[in-house]
Each structure stands twice: as structure tokens, then as C-alpha cells.
């Protein structure tokens, strides 16, 4: 399994954790890399070190559950309940990536087949930007 697929699947889990625990509806910006990845999220209040520690724990907890990762296709009408902001407006068939019963989002990228393949998720840094935006940089071991 490629390192990029592992990073990409970890990003899905991070984004779901941010949505469910920190009211961040989606990542605003993403740079996916094999060595490190950065994601920006809009959060209602500034994050602190203990928040970052909790995010790391929550992501690793989901990774360790060995969720299967799979993909399926829906037509645009069937996919209306998903966040389609990154999907081109003219796309008629939408690929949904599901990570167990934890998350399902439109995505065209490569992913692992099981979250246990990801490795250990580590937040290498974070910074609060203006207007409630947090930038999280992470890697996987």
C-alpha cells in the first residue's frame, strides 16, 4: 500500500474527528504529501495543546479499529446528503469512500483497504490562523 494512500485515509479520519468533536464542517485547504500533510479547518474556538493531544488520540483510536475502507458510486441525486463541495458540478456519478461506519465522503483518491494499514498518526504541529482557522500538520509512522 502506498504511503500516499495511508496519508489520504488518515486525512479522512482526521476530518471526521474534526467534524464530530470540534464542529469543523470540512477541511478548507489540504496539501497531501507522502512525508507530511497539512489540513486547515474552521473551528468555533481556538484549539490548545490538550485539544491537539485529544485529536491525535481520537484519530489513532479509529485507525486501531481496523475499519474496512471501501468505495461505491451514486448518481448526483442520490449523493445529495453528502458534502459535494469538492465534486465538479458536471459530475453525474459520485464516488463515495466509506471508512467502516465512521465516515463516508465523496472522494476520487487512493485509500487503504483497512485502517490498520495506516500506521500511527502523529500531529507534528498546529497553529491558529486568523478568523478561527487552525492548520494541522501530521505524519504517519
Can you describe this structure?
With 141 residues, this protein is of the alpha+beta class. The protein has a single domain, classed as Threonyl-tRNA Synthetase, Chain A, domain 2 (2-Layer Sandwich). Helices cover 26% and strands 32% of the residues. The protein is built from 2 helices and 7 strands, in the order αββαβββββ. The chain has helices at 3-22, 49-64; strands at 27-31, 37-42, 69-75, 93-99, 103-106, 121-128, 133-140. It has a 4-stranded antiparallel sheet. The protein has a 3-stranded antiparallel sheet with strand order 3-4-5, with helices on one face. Strand 4 (93-99) and strand 5 form a beta hairpin. Helix 1 packs across helix 2 (49-64). The longest helix has 20 residues, at 3-22. The chain is globular, with a radius of gyration of 15 Å.
Helix segment tally: 2
Strand content: 25-35%
Average predicted local confidence, pLDDT: 94
The largest sheet has its strands arranged as 1-2-7-6
What is the name of the CATH architecture? 2-Layer Sandwich
- Broad structural category: alpha+beta
Give the CATH H-level superfamily.
Answer: Threonyl-trna Synthetase, Chain A, domain 2
Envelope shape: globular
Distance between the termini: 14 Å
Helix and strand sequence = HEEHEEEEE
**Helix share, percent:** 25-40%
Q: Classify the fold: give the CATH topology.
A: Threonyl-tRNA Synthetase, Chain A, domain 2
Amino acid at each position: 500500500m502506498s504511503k500516499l494512500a495511508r496519508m489520504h485515509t488518515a486525512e479522512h479520519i482526521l476530518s471526521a474527528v474534526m467534524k464530530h468533536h470540534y464542529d469543523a464542517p470540512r477541511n478548507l485547504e489540504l496539501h497531501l504529501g507522502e512525508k507530511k500533510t497539512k489540513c486547515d479547518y474552521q473551528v468555533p474556538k481556538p484549539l490548545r495543546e490538550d485539544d491537539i493531544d485529544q485529536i491525535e488520540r481520537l484519530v489513532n483510536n479509529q485507525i486501531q479499529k481496523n475499519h474496512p475502507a471501501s468505495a461505491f458510486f451514486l448518481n448526483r441525486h442520490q449523493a445529495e446528503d453528502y458534502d459535494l463541495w469538492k465534486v465538479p458540478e458536471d459530475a453525474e456519478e459520485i464516488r463515495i469512500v466509506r471508512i467502516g461506519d465512521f465516515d463516508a465522503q465523496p472522494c476520487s483518491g487512493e485509500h487503504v483497504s483497512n485502517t490498520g494499514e495506516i500506521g500511527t498518526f502523529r500531529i507534528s504541529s498546529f497553529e491558529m490562523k486568523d478568523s478561527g482557522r487552525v492548520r494541522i500538520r501530521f505524519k504517519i509512522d
